[in-house]
Every structure is written in C-alpha cells, then in structure tokens.
Task: inverse folding
C-alpha cells in the first residue's frame, strides 16, 4: 500500500525556476495535495502552495498535474501507476508568484468590472417568489468554486497575454450568463458581454467544461445561450426597433 | 523597517460570512472600511458549510416563529447560551436571509416559490434555507459579490499578527486602553503592513486546526481568539468544542472532512456493525419528550411532524457524537473505526443526487463510495468552538473599546453546543450588528488614534524572530505534536489527569515554539506562516484545557468521564479566560446573565 513515488515539482518565482525531483512516501487513499504537504513537512518547508478546504469546495489548490489543470485535493494518487512520475506545475495562464502559487488578480479585476446584480422590487409581503425550475439555470453557474482552471485552460488567454484586456475568460462569461438567466435581475448586460468581456473571442471548443471540477457545462448551458441572446439583440430588427422606441426593462 | 500604512475607520479581520457581512454594514453606515483575509477572497471556511441557514421564516410550517427557534437554540446549548444573543439571532435571522436574495443569492424553492427550508438536528420545524448541500458557498459568493459591488477595500492573503492598542484618553469603559489598529504581513511578499483604525472587527473563525481530526482548514488556528486575549479582551466558555458526529473516516488522508447533517435531515440513519439503528439507545431524558420512541414513528415524522416526534438521529450534535463514540468504543464500529450512515437504502438515487450533490461527489471522488448504493463510514470530527470573545450581545463589542467580534470567534450565542444551521444565521445577524456598532464607535474616535513607531517595530521584530534562529525545530513537527495532544487528551471525552497532562505538554510545546526556526525567505513561505500561527494555537489550546479542567460537569460539547452529569450549579456559571501579566491564561467564574421572565415563559408554553 505504501510506496515511494517520484514527484517533480516546479520551484521558483517570477525570475524563473525549474522542476525539482523528490522521492516521497505515498499511502493508501492519498491525493496529490497530501504528497505536496508531506514534501513541505519533511523535505521543503518553504514550498509555496495555496489550499484551504481539501475537499474540492473552495477552489484554492489549482495546479497542473502532468500537464492537466486540476485541483490537487481531488486528484487521487491511485490514478497514477506506482512507477509513474507525477509532475506538478503552477497554472500557466497566470504569472508565478512562487512555486505553485500564481498571481490570479486578473480574475478579481474582471469580477469587479461586471455590472452588479440588480433585483426587481420585492412583492408586497416582502418576499421574492421564483419557481425551482427557474432558479436552477443560474444555480448551475453559482456552483462555481472559482478555482480558475477554466481560465487556465482557455486557449484565448493561456498563451496570449495580450488578449486578457479584451477577454474576461469562461469563468466570467458564465457569471454574465448567470446574471442574464437570474429570475430577479433587471440589468441587460448583453452589449457588455460582447463589447467589454469578449464573448466573441470564445469559439466554443469546450476545453473549459472539460476541466471544470464542479462539472458545470460552461459552454453548452452558459456561453452558447449567451451568444445566442447577444445575436438576437444585435441582428433582430424588431428587437433593435423596440430598444430604440422604448426603454422598458426586458421580460 | 519597511512598512506600508493605511488609515480606516473600521478594519475587519476575516472574510468569511461574518467578516463580509460586518464590512458591508460598516461601509453602508458610512465608515471607511477594509477587510483583511489570510486567503483569497471567497475561499473562507464558510464555503464548507453545507446544510443551510436556520431562520424561522415559516415558509413550510406556519407554526414556526422566533420563539420556537429561540427555545430550540437554548435547549440545544443546554441553557448556557447568552439569552439575549439567542433572542436577537432568532428574531433577526429571517430578515438576514431575505436580504441575501436582494444581493443575488438563489435558494432552493418551495412549490409556492418561496425559500425552501430543510430539517436539521435540534430544530423543531424544517427551518434551514439552503441551496442543495452547498449553502455556505452560496452565502460566501453572495456576500463577496456584494462587497465587490460596494467597492470595499480587501487585503487578500494578508495575515494580522497583532492588534494595536493605545491610551483611550477619555478614561472610558474597559480600563485605559483602546484599539488603535492592527499589524500584519502580506503572505505573498512577506512585507509588513499596518492599519490605523479606531475599530477592529474580529471575524477569524475557529480553532479546529489544533486538533488532529477536524473538518477545519489550515486557517482555523484560533488567531482571532488569541489576538483578542493578547490585546486585553476576554474569552468565554472555551471548554465547549463541538465534535460534529459525522466526518469521513476513510481513507486516512480525508479523515475529518465533513459529512453534512443534511444526510440525516433528509432521511439518513445511523447503524452499527451489527446493523442496529443504535441512536434509539442514546436518547437523553432532556430530549425524551420530543424524540421518537420507535423506528416507525421516526420514519413517519419526515412527512407528518404534527403527530410524530423527531428521529433520534436528529438529536443535537453533542448527543449524536457521544453515541457514535460509545458504539465504536464498545466494539460495534465499522472496519475503519466509524459507524454507518445510510441513506442509500432509504431514499432514491435521484433524490440523493438532487439533495446532496456535493456529498455524492465527495464520496465518489475521495473514497470511491457511491452513496446512492452503499452506506458511508463516519465518525466524530472537531468542527466548531462554541467559546470565543466575550461580547456585548447587542453590539458585539469586546471588553476593550474598539474591539468587536462576530461569528465563530465570538462566544456566548451557542452556549455549550451549537445547533446545525445556527452558524450561518449567527454570521449574518451578528456580523451586521458588529459592523454597525464598529462604524458607530469609529465616528466618536475619528482622528484620535495613533500608531506609535515603537509598537510597530516591536511587532515586526516578533514576526521575523523565527528567521533569526538557526538549527531549531521544524514548525510542522510541533504542530503535529500539538494536534496529537489535543486529540488524545482534550478530545470528545475528558478526564482531569489527561487534561493536566495536556497542560504540561502545552507548556513544553510553548518552549519548543519559542525556539523553532524556518528555512527560506519571506516570500510566500508556509513554514514561516505556520511558525507565526503556532503561538496562537497554543494559547487557545491552553484556554480550552484549563477551562475544561475547571468545569467539573458534563454539558453539551464538554464531556467529563469523571463528572458524567450536568450540574445545576455549573449551569449558572460561565468561565472567563483572560491573559495574566506573565502570559499565562487566568480563569474566572462569572454568573450567567439572568433571562427575563417573559422569555423564560417560552420554555413552558412550547412543548
């Protein structure tokens, strides 16, 4: 059950770094994050790594394991052969701070730019009434744990730093979709989605959906419907005319 | 010394539910507000809360109201709760939940379109507003998005190492010192930072990381408890630590991770290795009148609460945790030292996946167990500390002008045992009140606080000390030994000789901490961060052990093998921890606040 694994872990900072090789004990049932913690406790006390819940709920321990964007806490060691070398590197789409920790401030900047949720007034008795089926569409996107693995894998920004200014990334496109489908929200963010957050850059290769640890269908349930709604608005002459002659909130 | 300085009216330490709710309120009250948090925004431990927010909204049971919630809360805490906090909490929780909807939260709905409510241990009616089993995530994301929308300054990945105090100048209450700000470091760069502010709200959460088996993350080092104590405030009832009955027990690396009480609220039952539904053997007299006597009655209760009583699986957490502990000790445990939690044989796979999606995912991914087909193996895990900073119930002000505390770091609200679901509501109700009072306090003291250079230099020197020492011990080893000590000697069942031994070991650990050294440099160095957290963990562990040794009775989250019953005399007393001049923990006994007659009547009117 217990064996010694070979781990290669990227160590360094903004100036540069390289993969360091460790031989480290692995026990039954462990995940990659356990092994990183064992390295900290026994061989590399200053090995930098972010983590919190260790149960796939907070989205802190994102990294690339054998090149795949993954949560370290949800990657079981039993998915690798005992003689297989496990390589752990920081997320590539973001600048490295140190070792496995990257500067994810890009995401917080984009989040702050999205026009805030704005509800319709409450009903007379002080409640909001919504049907379960109507809240479920947005609830899917609110499952997001903000691990930013979708951002990391998205080819629009993964190797194209220059696109970051014009493209918010899948995480924030589904945030826009979530608000668009939110039964209480009254703001129309369709123009902003296209013009400020770069919805058009996405060519729906679905890489984001593939790496999502929460199983959110980012592309099928979020981005594609949002694209459709943007197109409706842009090219439907009736919608265009309507938007010119009255300023009613939609729905 | 290189130091970045900022000036605010209110600085909130911690960005979980209580911290963000306090910051929102302080900001909306007109205070210049900052939030300081050890992790990235949105990662706080609140995301781990699964079941829901307890609030007597009466969306499913019109019979429910704040008086019933108040009564359930007090009885769950074995009457040691501060009555005024329990009252405010029960009265205000429904409004705090509704306002989350105005900020974007999307709770599960009733057929009428209202917020749905689920059953939980110790609550008479289905009362928990929820989103599947990821309610904490919904709460944190909603408050995070509100915080961002309001443009509140957030200092992420920043650790506060010291609260700063200065002369009050007006001889006000609480002696002659008052809060003047806080000192800390950026985790990323290791550089120092200080905030000058007349009000500091502590919202730092709990202490679970001092225990070996815990549902808590690395952040739960008791730093807020310890900072408050060092600054001159007091802690109340630190002996009461909640062991959640159902943590994962297998595989070892996930031992302690929470399995939500919703599994039982939604129909799950506990069985021992002989297949017996053992909770019927552990119904205490205190709850006998409201607990089902037969399996048939318990099963009927889910659909008909009027004519049936609650299943014993939904007794308060302290009762269930002790029962599981006894079953395992009696040799009726599972192969991995837990008991079985079975929902697979009781509900359809579709229902389980819909109601408990993250439990389904967690067991599938981490333990290779399909909870729609097999029972889970579970056992007690250190989950929550009822004890905390002693506060004024209405304002959350500590016994030091300018210091406020809300959420898990504050004490009093939950008495000797917290009911499930009452934590998220506690965060909202008292986070808001703390933010309001902190803003109010700051208005009176604006421009009258200073940060003297010598205090800042001293805080800086203390933070860098682990780098100065060479050849000392590794902080991870010391942490491991502390966790083992608390697990073995101040755990779920306690005895005087064991706790005396724990105190000796804690004293030895203190010496080791004073001598440990760290490798590397200041930039994002987890070894250094841990070295600075350890003194907090030791202080809090000492408080728990001392108070637990002093309280010679069993009540709620404090069980003494040598004093196995509740003692009415102890039921009238709180234990207060303060820091003696030599740095040791001093204990004083303090009478419980007297509940007014109109509230005392509630315990007679609701059966």
Result:
């Amino acid at each position: 059950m217990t064996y010694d694994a070979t781990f290669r872990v990227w160590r360094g900072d903004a100036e540069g770094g390289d993969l360091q090789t460790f031989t480290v004990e692995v026990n039954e049932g462990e995940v990659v994050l356990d092994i990183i913690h064992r390295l900290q406790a026994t061989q590399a006390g200053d090995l930098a790594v972010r983590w919190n819940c260790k149960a796939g709920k907070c989205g802190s321990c994102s990294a690339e394991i054998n090149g795949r964007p993954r949560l370290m806490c949800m990657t079981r060691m039993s998915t690798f052969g005992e003689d297989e070398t496990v390589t752990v590197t920081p997320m590539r789409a973001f600048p490295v701070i140190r070792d496995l920790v990257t500067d994810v401030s890009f995401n917080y900047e984009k989040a702050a730019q999205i026009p805030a949720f704005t509800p319709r007034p409450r009903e007379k008795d002080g409640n909001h009434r919504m049907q379960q089926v109507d809240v479920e569409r947005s609830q899917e996107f609110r499952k997001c744990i903000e691990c930013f693995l979708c951002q990391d894998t998205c080819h629009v920004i993964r190797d194209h730093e220059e696109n970051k200014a014009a493209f918010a990334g899948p995480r924030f496109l589904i945030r826009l979709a979530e608000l668009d489908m939110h039964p209480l929200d009254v703001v129309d963010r369709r123009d902003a989605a296209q013009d400020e957050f770069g919805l058009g850059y996405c060519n729906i290769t679905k890489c984001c959906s593939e790496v999502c640890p929460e199983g959110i269908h980012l592309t099928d349930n979020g981005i594609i419907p949002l694209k459709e709604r943007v197109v409706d608005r842009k090219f439907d002459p009736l919608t265009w005319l309507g938007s010119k002659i009255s300023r009613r909130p939609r729905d | 010394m290189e130091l970045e300085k900022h000036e605010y009216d209110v600085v909130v330490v911690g960005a979980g539910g209580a911290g963000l709710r306090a910051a929102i309120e302080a900001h909306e009250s007109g205070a210049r507000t900052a939030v300081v948090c050890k992790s990235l925004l949105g990662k706080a431990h609140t995301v781990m809360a699964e079941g829901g927010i307890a609030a007597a909204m009466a969306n499913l049971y019109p019979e429910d109201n704040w008086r019933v919630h108040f009564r359930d809360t007090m009885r769950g805490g074995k009457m040691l709760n501060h009555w005024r906090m329990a009252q405010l909490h029960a009265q205000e929780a429904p409004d705090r939940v509704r306002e989350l909807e105005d900020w974007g939260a999307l709770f599960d709905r009733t057929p009428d379109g209202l917020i749905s409510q689920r059953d939980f241990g110790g609550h008479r009616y289905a009362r928990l507003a929820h989103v599947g089993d990821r309610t904490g995530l919904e709460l944190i994301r909603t408050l995070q998005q509100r915080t961002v929308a309001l443009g509140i300054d957030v200092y992420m990945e920043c650790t506060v190492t010291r609260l700063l105090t200065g002369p009050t100048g007006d001889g006000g209450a609480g002696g002659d010192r008052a809060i003047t700000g806080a000192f800390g470091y950026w985790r990323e760069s290791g550089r120092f930072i200080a905030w000058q502010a007349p009000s500091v709200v502590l919202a730092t959460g709990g202490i679970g990381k001092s225990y070996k088996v815990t549902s808590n993350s690395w952040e739960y080092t008791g730093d807020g408890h310890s900072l408050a104590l060092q600054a001159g405030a007091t802690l109340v009832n630190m002996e009461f630590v909640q062991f959640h009955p159902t943590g994962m027990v297998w595989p070892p690396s996930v031992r302690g991770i929470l399995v939500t009480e919703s599994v039982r609220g939604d129909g799950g039952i506990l069985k021992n290795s002989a297949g017996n539904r053992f909770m019927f053997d552990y119904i205490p007299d205190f709850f006998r009148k409201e607990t089902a006597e037969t399996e048939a009655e318990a099963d009927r209760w889910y659909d008909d609460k009027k004519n049936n009583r609650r299943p014993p699986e939904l007794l308060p957490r302290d009762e269930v945790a002790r029962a599981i502990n006894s079953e395992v000790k009696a040799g009726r445990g599972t192969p991995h030292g837990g008991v079985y939690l079975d929902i697979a044989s009781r509900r359809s796979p579709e229902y389980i996946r819909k109601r408990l999606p993250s439990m389904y995912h967690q067991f599938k991914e981490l333990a290779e167990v399909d909870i729609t087909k097999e029972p889970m193996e579970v056992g007690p895990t250190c989950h929550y500390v009822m004890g905390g900073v002693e506060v004024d119930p209405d304002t959350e002000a500590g016994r030091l002008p300018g210091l406020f505390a809300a959420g898990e770091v504050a004490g009093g609200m939950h008495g000797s045992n917290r009911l499930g679901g009452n934590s998220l509501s506690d965060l909202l109700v008292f986070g808001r009140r703390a933010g309001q009072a902190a803003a109010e306090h700051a208005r009176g003291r604006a421009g009258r606080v200073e940060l003297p250079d010598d205090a800042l230099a001293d805080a800086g020197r203390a933070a860098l000390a682990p780098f100065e020492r060479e050849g000392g011990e590794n902080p991870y080893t010391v942490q491991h030994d502390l966790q083992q000590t608390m697990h073995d000697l101040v755990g779920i069942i306690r005895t005087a000789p064991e706790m005396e031994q724990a105190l000796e070991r804690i004293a030895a650990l203190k010496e080791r901490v004073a001598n440990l050294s760290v490798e590397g440099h200041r930039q994002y160095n987890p070894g250094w961060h841990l070295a600075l957290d350890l003194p907090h963990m030791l202080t809090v562990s000492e408080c728990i052990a001392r108070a637990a040794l002093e309280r010679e009775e069993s009540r709620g989250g404090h069980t003494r093998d040598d004093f196995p019953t509740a003692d009415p005399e102890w039921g009238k007393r709180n234990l207060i921890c303060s820091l003696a001049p030599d740095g040791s923990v001093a204990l004083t006994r303090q009478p419980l606040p007297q509940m007014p007659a109109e509230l005392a009547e509630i315990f007679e009117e609701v059966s």
